[in-house]
Amino acid sequence: MITQFDSSYVGHVDMENVGYAGTPINDRWYSNEQLLTGLSKAEAQARLMDKLGYGALWMAEHHFQPEGTETLPNIILIAMHLVHCTERLKIGTGFNIVPMWHPLRLAEDYAVADFYSKGRVIFGVGRGYHTREVETFGSPLIDQAANREMFEEGVELIFKAFNNERFSHQGKYFTCPPEIPYRGYALKELTLVPRPQKLPVECWQPIQGGSMRALEFMAKHGIQGMVGGGSAEGGIVQKLVNDWIAAHKKVKGIDLIPGERMAIGFQFHIAKNREEGIREAHKYYEENMKMFGELRLARALTDEQVVAMRDPKTAVTAKLPTLDDAVRNGGFLTGSPDEIIEDLKKLEQRLPGLKRVTVNQPMSLPGALALEQLEWFAKDVMPHFKG
What we know:
By secondary structure, the protein is of the alpha/beta class. It has a single domain (4-384), classed as Luciferase-like domain (TIM Barrel, Alpha-Beta Barrel). It contains 14 helices and 13 strands. It has helices at residues 32-35, 37-52, 75-85, 103-116, 131-134, 144-163, 212-221, 238-252, 274-293, 303-309, 312-315, 323-329, 337-350, 367-380, and strands at 4-8, 56-59, 90-97, 121-126, 169-170, 175-176, 181-182, 185-186, 203-207, 224-228, 262-270, 332-335, 356-360. The protein has an eight-stranded parallel beta barrel, surrounded by six helices. A two-stranded antiparallel ribbon has the order 5-6. A hairpin with a 4-residue loop joins strand 5 (169-170) and strand 6 (175-176). Helix 2 crosses helix 3 (75-85), helix 4 crosses helix 6 and helix 7 (212-221) packs across helix 8 (238-252). The longest helix is centred in the middle third of the chain and has 20 residues, at 144-163. The radius of gyration is 21 Å and the shape is globular.
């Protein structure tokens, strides 16, 4: 049963000329003054969500994006500011890109945030999907196997540091501590100072490909899964839910209820009716697709479609994904509040273990309109669900 609604914000400027026929993503270039508005919008959204009764605001770590699309770098640092701007809203650092950190620096930063926020900052991990970001920091992404290895070892090390007063680690990418003399003795163990106050640490990770290896790794470490949320192109795939249940049965020997230990994310746009919602939001959906499709997060796209989206002249004649498709597939909620409530009630029936839903807005949606949509959703949709 759905008891909590969250939302996400990854940082973007208010864009002009959006949609498939609009400015190509690689032709966008904003000034530092414009890029800083992404930080201001995060604060405005957090303040409003806090007043309206949302559960958590989720952010994502990104770097070097003058195109104005994902403009939040150190999300633990930003989370600490947002905690001090709000009273009860939790701030989700979903997701810290583990291969771009030394795992122990990330563990320390989170532990400090956990203390000062009194537990209102939620931990999250991810592998990354921008070569410009991950490879610039000296870690692999083009080599997907190496990226996965580095991510998995980094997460293992983080949880060792969280859960043990003393720990050591010897792996392919990290040796902690190094074998060196220290104050007259041979260094053999380390202690994270400080460690998080509440253990085990609540941790979330996005589910993109949904391989059994990834799902079993998450189950092993007690990591909860977030499905969709802006980059996914549609729908709740029953196979993914079944595989999630199977992974926990195999690794932990527990029987999950469908939807348990998961959060399901949707893009949304409320309007008078479904047709008007599609008409109002289609250009923002298309701009969102231009950004994420190029990065292969919309897995249904062909190479030809990705190339077509780079040029507005070819984009308008190519058979590209439409908002109508996304609504029909169940990945985008639009229409009147009653229509959206009906869709979410059907989701409850399919996934009775689901407690959290994340309602997100397409990349490029103007800040003022985003706040209006969040307020409308809170007033006319959220009261129909317990929590």
